[in-house]
Amino acid sequence: MTRTTSERRAAQEDVTSSDVVSPLRRASITGRIFLVVAINLAGLVALALVLTGVGGQLRLAWNDLRATNQAVEQLFDIERAAYRLHREARSFLDRPDEERRGEFEAAKAVFTGVLLRAVDGGTPEGRTELAEFADAARRFLFGFDDLRGLEIDIRLLYENEFADLVPRVRERLDALDLAIRPNDVELRPLVAAAYDRFAAFRVDLVAYRQERRSELLDDARRARDGFAAALHEIGRSEAPDSRGYAIERFASEVREMDSIFSRLEYIADRRARWLAGAVEGNRVEMTALLQRAVDRQEELESRAIRRFDDLFGAAIWRFAAITAVFAALSLWASIKVARTIRAPLTEARGAMSAVVVGDTDRPIAGLEARDEIGDMARSIEVFRQEVAGIRRREEEHGAQERRWYGILETSPIGIAILSASDGRPVFRNRRYDQLFGLTDDAEASPPRPRDGFADPDDAVRLSEAVGVGRGVSGWQALMRRLDGSTWWGLLEVRPIDFAGRVDSSMWSNTIPVVW
């Protein structure tokens, strides 16, 4: 169905007004694709900025976490070193020999080195607590040094006074034993008891020097009391020589034994007070301070872990949010760009197909778009207009041909259009058929005009004349119908362009004479 001019104009205006809806059509396809790429790049830049900002915070949080973890490890190292120090100190105080003193000095060196490294490399909060711990450790070591001074006093007491007392007492006992007659059954057991008590006294004091157990002092005191009691019983004997010898000779040694006991008890009392106060008290304080520092560092470590987890979680949420936003923007832009490409291409393909099948009235969309598809649409519009022009010209030519055929058919002159290749008529009007006596049966194989000459030589001469002069005019010849009757014809032959090819037209007319 053919549209009117007004309908075509209205349709074209509707397409034009509704075509450029999206501003994206003002950009090239490359620009639109670059828009999607730019959105993705912007997303990557945003992620990089977030990574830079959050990365710095995470790095600081991780450094804090690592510092607190190292501080906790250092505190555990201090705890192990302090435990070893206290163990070696107790071992030395129980048995103060050179081997245990060397082990204590080694433990002290390890403890001091670990403590100094922790104080130098610790956090400000940890340094404060470690400073308090270092003061307690210093008091512990000073107290231990004081105990070592007491140990020196004990060693000097043993090496000087006790070492001098033992041989003198044994010498006195030997002299007392010689002064008693062999048959003196009363004094002999008392002298043996004195020997035994003094030996026990000496063994207990020697053992106390090695082990520092208070019960050894008690045993030594009981042995001394037994020794003094045996001497007292000997002094009560009726043998005046022996009694006087014993009483007079042992008086100074007994006093020295009491003096040694008094000094050992004084030292033991001071040692016990130093152990309970300066050493043991500071050890307990060190343990408490160290535990408090460990608890504090573990709290800082837990806080650093929570901070790192919070920052890491926030970073994940930021990454997820930015990724989701830019992914949505990229998807939206991709859909929009794809729609601005796919829909116009589909429309252009449909318009092209319509033009190809002859629907030149269909308007072309996207003529105002400045992209490549708009150029395609404008090219299709030019093609459509050319096809429409050709169609109009063909329609006008067809109408003209129909008018011309009508004129030819109704002409009183017999007209035939002959093929230039074989001379057969490609068109004959009614008058021509009447002149040559052609009927509908002759339509299948119409005769050639040269076969209609009564004299075939006339046909040859006419053909030669046409070839020489490009047509003839007013040529008279005797013609013959199919039924054999003849008639005079006045012929006109001219070359014409018929149906896109060069043919010849032969115009025939009759003269009044009919044979």
What is the terminal separation in angstroms? 56 Å
**Proportion of helical residues:** over 70%
Task: Count helical runs.
Answer: 10
Shape verdict: rod-shaped
Record field, number of beta strands: 6
CATH architecture descriptor name of the domain at 413-514:
2-Layer Sandwich
Structural class: alpha+beta
Top-tier CATH class of the domain at 413-514: Alpha Beta
Please name the CATH topology of the domain at 413-514.
Answer: Beta-Lactamase
Largest sheet: 6 strands, antiparallel
> What percentage of the residues does DSSP assign to strands (E)?
5-15%
Spans of at least 5 consecutive residues whose pLDDT stays below 50 are 1-5, 8-21
* Series of secondary-structure elements, N-terminal to C-terminal: HHHHHHHHEEHHEEEE
Q: Mean pLDDT, as a whole number?
A: 75
Per CATH, the superfamily of the domain at 413-514 is PAS domain
- Rg over CA atoms, rounded to whole Å, is 70 Å
